[in-house]
Input
Amino acid sequence: MPRTVLTLMGALMALGVAVAAGWTGPLDAAVANAVVGIRSPLLTYIATSFTALGSEPVVTLLAVIAVLYCFGAGRARLVLTLLWIPFTFLLSTIVKLLVHRPRPLQALIVIPPSYSFPSGHAAAASALFLTLALLATGAERRAGPRRFLIGAALFLAVLVAWSRVYLGVHYFSDVVGGLLLGSAGAVAATAVVRRSGSRSAVQTLGSPE
Output
C-alpha cells in the first residue's frame, strides 16, 4: 500500500509540474477537440447527469450516509477513513492555488470560478467511491468480488472525470490529476485504518485475561 501511495503522489507531482510548465498543452488541446467532435444531445445529458456524482453536495451527502452506517454498524473506527473524503476538497483547492491554471474558455455549463488543475470533481469522486470500495472489500477474501467492487468504483470515478472534460470545464490533464489525488488519499487512509485495526486485534489477543 505505501508503495502505491508514493507512486500515485509522485505521478501527481510530476503531472503538476508538467501542467505548470505548459508541457501538457498539446495533448489537452487534442483531447478537447476530439471531445467536441463527438458531442451530442444524448452524451450531453449523460455527462450532465453523472458529473453531479463528483459535486460537493452529493459527495458530502454520501459520505455522511456512510459515516452514519459505520456508527450504526458498530464500526466507528472506519469513520477515520471516511474523513479523507471531505479533506479532498480542501487539498484540491490548495493544489489549484499552487498550479494556478486557468479554466478552458468554452464550456457547455457554467464555468466555475476556481482554477482548473486538478479537477475537484474527479478527486472527490475517486476519493469517495474508491474509499467505500476498499472498505467494503476489507473482509472479503475472494478475488472476484474485490475486483468487481474496486473496478466499479474506478469506473464511476472515470465517468465523472470524463464528464468534466466533455462539458468543457476541465482539461484532460486536470481530471487525471484529480483521479491521482483522490485515489492516493483513499489508498493511504484505508491502509492506515486497517493497520491500526490489526494492531488493536494483536494487542487484544496478547492481553492477559
The mean pLDDT is 86. Residues 14 and 90 are 20 Å apart (CA to CA).
